[in-house]
Write a structure and sequence with these properties.
The chain is of the alpha+beta class. It contains 10 helices and 18 strands. A hairpin with a 2-residue loop joins strand 16 and strand 17. Helix 1 packs across helix 3, helix 4 runs antiparallel to helix 5 and helix 6 runs antiparallel to helix 7. The protein is globular. The two termini are 20 Å apart.
Length: 338
């Protein structure tokens, strides 16, 4: 076994043998606390940040990935007390993710990933962390007046899914995302052949899927200057096969064989759009139990408890879902490169 894979396997054993630690709520930090629990359950993040020690990093209090590395290590310890994470919160505050402010979990999640790209001096390692979440897509834009087609290859770090206002499912949301969409009116795009903005038809196809699939259920709507939250039910499975769930989502260039995903973390929002609270359901392995983390309070729960976050009137609702592709540890030698 290579030295790198031996280190990762050792990391998994430490992770699985330890219990979960809560996180105190400092200055309205429930959003960050919840994301830290999901990062802790995503063992690949900690394993890659552990490698950064050899490469070195700027030891300053503004460096978000350095403070993230430290707090994730503290969360893996066997202490029954809540993990100290004030330095991580202060590093975010010094990078304009302010304390004493209500935040959107998806926005903070993407900000943390961006800080790792900007502030890690080991750029290949930083890219490897980003690649954990990288969804590569091909977008085709067909002009409906001259039939010319523009093609753009790009990527996303999460799958933003529109939620219907009555009842929906993860499968239904993903199917809608990959359906052809007509862009008209204010959504018209510029056509180089016609020399003007024209109606068009847009199609998004997958080029590659990530190790960690972050799904963002877009439950907030802006209307007339006000933001409201949709509490409608959205069901989601504990595991699914992407190739069977959304068969028409794949580009002809897609070459991955394994498209099976297993849920390991759920970011939950309760309350209203402008005033709410975040908690998390996480598990540290497919063969491990589910836990519920509400700041410093942590308790073991069941899959049925996780399903209670599907939604409904005056209920706490799933807002972000974290799925892992492939086997849990790939025979003890996981491949992390994108």
């Amino acid at each position: 076994m290579s030295g790198r894979n031996l280190m990762i396997s050792s990391f998994i054993m430490r992770e699985r043998s330890s219990g979960m630690r809560g996180l105190p709520n400092h200055h309205l930090s429930c959003c960050v606390n919840t994301l830290l629990q999901t990062f802790s359950a995503t063992w690949e993040i900690g394993a890659l940040l552990d490698k950064w020690e050899a490469a070195g990093g700027r030891a300053d209090d503004r460096n978000v990935p350095l403070q993230l590395k430290r707090v994730l290590a503290a969360m893996r310890s066997d202490s029954p007390r809540p993990a100290p994470h004030r330095d991580f919160l202060l590093s975010l505050d010094r990078n304009c993710v302010r304390l004493n402010t209500q935040h959107d979990a998806d926005e903070v999640f993407l900000s943390i990933l961006n800080f790792m790209q900007q502030q890690m001096d080991d750029k290949p390692l930083a890219l490897e962390i980003q690649n954990l979440y990288r969804i590569s897509v091909k977008t085709n834009l067909e002009c409906l007046e001259c039939s010319s087609v523009q093609t753009l290859n790009t990527y996303m770090l999460g799958l933003p899914l529109h939620v219907k206002e009555d009842h929906d499912s993860l499968e239904g949301c993903m199917t809608s995302f990959f359906e052809h969409q007509e862009l008209r009116g204010a959504n018209c795009c510029f056509c180089g052949i016609c020399g003007k903005k024209t109606p068009s038809k847009q199609a998004v196809k997958l080029l590659s899927l990530p190790r960690i699939l972050c799904v963002h259920l877009k439950r907030f709507r802006n209307h007339g200057g006000y933001t409201r939250k949709l509490d409608c039910p959205v069901t989601f499975p504990e595991s699914f096969d992407f190739s069977e769930t959304v068969k028409d989502a794949f580009s002809s260039d897609f070459a991955q064989d394994d498209c099976k995903y297993t849920l390991h973390a759920v970011v939950v929002h309760s309350g209203y759009a402008m005033f709410g609270h975040y908690t998390a359901y996480v598990r540290h392995g497919a063969d491990r139990p589910w836990y519920y983390a509400d700041d410093s309070h942590v308790q073991q729960v069941s899959w049925e408890d996780v399903q209670s976050t599907y939604g409904g009137p005056r209920r706490h609702t799933a807002y972000m879902l974290m799925y892992r592709r492939g086997p849990e540890d790939n025979g003890g030698q996981p491949e992390l490169s994108g």
